[in-house]
Amino acid sequence: MSTSTQSKTEIESLLSQSESILSKNAWSTLEATCNTTFERVLNAFITHRVGEEHFASVTGYGHDDLGRDVTDKVFASALQAESAIVRTQFVSGTHTLSVALRGLLRAGQTMLVVTGHPYDTLEEVIGLRGESSQSLIQQGINYKEISVFSEDESHFEGIKNTHHRDIQNADMVYIQRSRGYSLRPTLTIAELREIIAAVRAVKPEALVMVDNCYGEFTEDTEPTDPSVGADIMAGSLIKNPGGGIAPCGGYIAGKTHLVDACADSLTCPGVGREGGYTFNLTRLILQGLYLSPSSVKEALKSMTLAAHVFHNLGYETIPSWDAVRGDIIQVIHLQSADKLIGFCKALQSVSPVSAYVQPVPSVVPGYGDEVVMAGGTFIDGSTSELSADGPLRAPYTVFYQGGLTYVHGRLALKTILKTFETL
Ligand SMILES: *Cc1c(COP(=O)(O)O)cnc(C)c1O
User: Fold this and answer.
1) Residue 393: phi, psi to the nearest 5?
2) Which atom of ligand 1 lies closest to the CA of 381?
């Protein structure tokens, strides 16, 4: 009993030491960002005159669904875009990105990804894996990828020289903001701005699309703000902008004529954004957006705490606790299979849903190695809620993300550290 009490107080003091440093440094930036993004979100509700009348759905075709229309407007303003389409009919982030790509690219055109190999699930959408006749490549679109990360890190604009020809040949330049589940860095808004300016210097008319998954409200400004310059972006409502409340869905935001083309791609020409039943979910989607700036801040606070504590314990953490964050993911190299599994088990054991489940490593399609995952979330697969996963191979990296409340992130970390004492 006395040893467990002692270790409890040791862990507690480890956390409070980190908290006292973080509260004086990293967290004031997070609070300031949340103040900015929340005010913008709230103003969007006020400006577009959201009222109770918007919470009831129109059935059937969904023509003249006032709630759906106002949701599009509120998201557009909140995301600093001219226009947006927010729909429960987007089944995932991947589907949303796919709808946008099909809406924007035509046979014979070229898509240039400048952030290296894209997120796993896009491989089949593009046609890099699988045999779907519906992939972009099978539909006659040319595909090329280059990586800004092979440039000197602080000079992404160098691509305008090193990849001049590729940029000139591109109809669409595609940028993935978040690292996703790779080890390349996440782009900050400042870096996005630099890359987009470099692209425009070579080809002003190139269409710039950003995969904004995981990025929303992590910084003051969104990629479609004119000061950053993306033409269009897309994301998932079971990540940041759903605030843990939206049960499904995605959004596409950007220039009006481009969003209109994406709407035709989601429904069909002639229907565009004018149809689509909203399943009485409008209130939850709006409420999720309202909560999102705060839940993103809470997630970022939890991730910086984990980064600080694990760094002090001698682990490599990416990003470091004091870095500017462009997504809600924390990478920690745990250097041991037992620790990776222990991390996930501990996290699962303090989840609100399915805490009784024991995560076990298993094979996941698309991965070469077994993967272990933890995520006792209210919404299935939701990674804005506290969750973790990692492939069972050196350096036994855990991808730790989300958390709707800091108290939960803090408690989970305590439990993880306690488990580590026995490993
Ligand atoms: C999550 C994510 C996606 C989409 O994934 P879904 O699981 O289909 O929602 C795409 N790109 C990035 C970078 C992501 O993090």
Assistant:
1) -150, 155
2) 7
Atom of ligand 1 nearest to the CA of 177: 13
Instruction: Note the pLDDT tens digit of each residue in 203-212.
Output: 999 999 999 9
The pick from 214, 380, 384 for probing ligand 1's pocket by mutation, whose C-beta has the most ligand atoms within 8 angstroms, reads 214
233 CA to centre of ligand 1 in angstroms:
13
Predicted TM-score (pTM) of the model is: 0.96
Neighbours of 289 (CB within 10 A): 28
77 backbone dihedrals φ, ψ, rounded to 5°: -65, -45
Q: Is 215 in the pocket of ligand 1 (CB under 6 A)?
A: no
Instruction: Kindly report the protein residue whose alpha carbon is nearest to atom 13 of ligand 1.
Output: 180
Over residues 118-132, mean pLDDT: 93
pLDDT of residue 281: 97
DSSP character at residue 339: H
Measured distance CA(323)–CA(314) in Å, rounded: 18
H helix intervals, 245-391: 256-266, 282-312, 337-349
The CA distances from residue 303 to 309, 325, 386, 412, in Å, are 10, 10, 10, 11
Distance (Å) from CA 124 to ligand 1 centroid: 13
Distance of CA 43 to the CA centre of its chain: 23
Rounded Cα distance, 158 and 128, in Å: 27
Is the bond leading into 226 cis (omega within 30 degrees of zero)? no
Amino acid at 259: V
